[in-house]
TrEMBL record:
Pfam family, one: DUF1668
Name this protein carries in UniProt: Os04g0428300 protein
Stored PANTHER family: OS04G0426500 PROTEIN (PTHR33085:SF129), OS12G0113100 PROTEIN-RELATED (PTHR33085)
Lineage, opening ranks: Eukaryota, Viridiplantae, Streptophyta, Embryophyta, Tracheophyta
UniProt xrefs under InterPro entries: DUF1668_ORYSA
Length: 195
């Protein structure tokens, strides 16, 4: 059995070397954003998160985590979220759901399958001092809109907030949620992947 931990691959020699006996705080596909010098992916709670991986001598910590979308209670998550890096701290996040109904005979059946695609942007948090030594972080007052087509229009009104929490570290970030769209079809097709 191989050792559990984190490894780096030298792309010139195609060899792996151990970095530490700890696991990265991000899961699935992760993306590097050079403008912020941070890596982005999902935390264990499927929230968009950022980590500074510039020093791997100890376990990296998350420097920000955000929940961009709150599904309705009757939505069943089909698979983990997917992240597409659009560039300059802008991302597209896809989440996949279905809803079920109980038939006349008491059996559950899938009523709808749909994807929620949300555009977000992560930017450095700016502070404005008030002259007495304290600073207040600016809030983004934009409201995200949901746009659903077809029969899912009543069940695709998810919401989220754009307020991230900088979890310590040197960098303070905030997430701006731009827009969420619901994709459903009537011909039985379904988006399974966005990258």
């Amino acid at each position: 059995m191989e050792d559990v931990g984190t490894y780096c691959m030298d792309i010139a020699t195609h060899t792996w070397s151990p970095v530490g006996k700890w696991m990265l705080p991000l899961y699935g596909k992760i993306e590097y954003v050079p403008e912020l010098n941070l890596w982005f992916g999902f935390s264990d709670k499927n929230h968009l998160s950022a980590a500074d991986l510039s020093n791997l001598d100890s376990k990296p910590q998350l420097v920000g985590t955000w929940k961009e979308f709150d599904p309705l209670e009757d939505w069943d998550l089909l698979q983990g979220p997917q992240l597409v890096n659009i560039g300059s701290g802008k991302f597209c996040i896809a989440r996949f759901f279905n809803t079920t109904r109980i038939s006349y005979y008491g059996d559950d059946f899938i009523d709808q399958t749909f994807a929620i695609i949300t555009g977000v942007e992560v930017v450095p948090r700016t502070y404005q001092g008030n002259g007495n030594g304290s600073a207040n972080g600016g809030k983004d007052n934009r409201i995200a809109s949901s746009n659903c087509n077809g029969s899912a229009s009543n069940s695709c009104n998810g919401h989220g907030n754009g307020n991230g929490n900088g979890n310590g570290g040197k960098k303070k970030l905030r997430m701006i949620k731009h827009k969420s769209k619901c994709h459903t079809t009537t011909d039985g097709t379904f988006i399974e992947s966005v990258f």
